[in-house]
Amino acid sequence: MSLDLDGLLRSRIVDVPDFPTPGVVFKDISPLLADHVAFAGAVDAIVAHWRGPGHSGRVDKVVGIEARGFIVAAPVAYHVGADFVPVRKPGKLPLATHETSYDLEYGSNVLQVHQEAFTPGDRVLVVDDVLATGGTAAAAMRLVEQAGGVVVGLSVLLELTFLDGRAALPARDVHALVTY
């Protein structure tokens, strides 16, 4: 019996209108995370993509973007045999950091990463839950490169194509499990 991963993931992503602000339809992945088969299938699909044809290079580090990106990135790092690196909001990392600001669908924010998180030349996969406007992913990639890493690509659980986030990521290898 084969698993319809796309259908399973879609059935576990719930629309929440007017969250976090009026007019925004939030895609809640909590039901997906709560379903072992769906969550394991998502992690396995991301790992298989980066181990598949055209992606035979090593991955040294996997970046997870605060906060839901951590949940997906950590098991991906484990399965590809890479280190996990958190990219966080301000004031959450105890050592010296690089930081960058970015815009998102409903505001702006800042991301930080420890300055010593990457060795020059580290091949880094960035993982997050959603690709919307691309601002958060682009900021995380800037941080990786500022700290000496080389971004090999981005994987997300879902992409909101109507927000055209890929436009903020020109010439980047972007992989989405589900698109809306």
Q: Could you name the key traits of this structure?
A:
single chain, 180 residues, alpha/beta, Rossmann fold, five-stranded parallel beta sheet, two-stranded antiparallel sheet, 5 helices, 9 strands, 29% helix, globular
Q: Please tell me the overall pLDDT.
A: 94
| Number of H/I helices | 5
Shape call: globular
Helix vs. strand class: alpha/beta
Numbering strands along the chain, what is their spatial order in the largest sheet? 4-3-7-8-9
Describe the structure.
With 180 residues, this protein is of the alpha/beta class. The chain has a single domain, classed as 3-Layer(aba) Sandwich (Rossmann fold). Helices cover 29% and strands 33% of the residues. The protein is built from five helices and nine strands, in the order αββααβαββββαββ. It has a five-stranded parallel sheet with strand order 4-3-7-8-9, with helices on both faces. A two-stranded antiparallel ribbon has the order 1-2. Helix 3 crosses helix 4. The longest helix is centred in the N-terminal third of the chain and has 16 residues. The two termini are 26 Å apart. The mean pLDDT is 94.
